[in-house]
Request: fold
Amino acid sequence: MRPWLQGFAVAVWAAMVMVTSAVAEENSHGRTRFILAASWEPAFCATNQKKAECRNQSSNNFDAKNFSLHGLWPMRQEYCDVSDDLKQSDRSSDWKDLPAVQLSAETKASLDKVMPGTQSGLERHEWIKHGSCTKLSADDYFGTAVGLINELNTSAVRDLFAQNIGKTLDAEAIKAAFNKSFGAGASDRVKMSCRQVGKVRVISELTIGLSEDAIQPSPEGEPRLEQLIQSAGKTSFGCDQGVVDAAGF
Reply:
């Protein structure tokens, strides 16, 4: 082979190796296509006391010791095929004034349990802003989100929070609980948010990265959160520590 041709062949081979390596690296790290936003309701209510779902807070409520569903959000997509008038209403009006979401009785009951914000019309906002971009029916969209938050609420992460109400948790303890429940490295796909309530910093929300399969159908009752997390991209953890707020003011 002529020297210049041999050099060209080597260059092509090297380029192919680089592309293959880049693809393999991306696949190994995964890509985040959806976010599961899980709120700690007592912390939310500490600064939103006038909200309907906050006025009847009690330590006996489900949301006092479990994560609440804020939403299931497609990455970088909002208000798909939604009219400008409806967008404006969503951004500036009481969410109870938005169109009602059509749900089966079963899905509505399940959603009301894990999303106390339905008392303020949160599901109407979430459907218009985020659910509209999934190509799912409202029933399937919220049914999927309920299933995912229920998995989180049967994990070591939920147990850690429930057992430490009123106490401070640091990032390392929460990361360890995620890795225990959803496999090594799961904590690399989680971001924690905190908010200041008086002189106390409380943990307000966990946003969990999920892969593109988050809205794909799955066998009834089969656990899927671990695989969805493991196939997502990595992120920084955010807030390093905060108090697990108790229900009530």
Q: What stands out?
A: Residues 3-28 have pLDDT under 50 and may be disordered. The first strand starts at residue 34 and ends at 39. The radius of gyration is 21 Å. The beta strands are 34-39, 68-74, 168-170, 190-197, 200-210, 241-243.
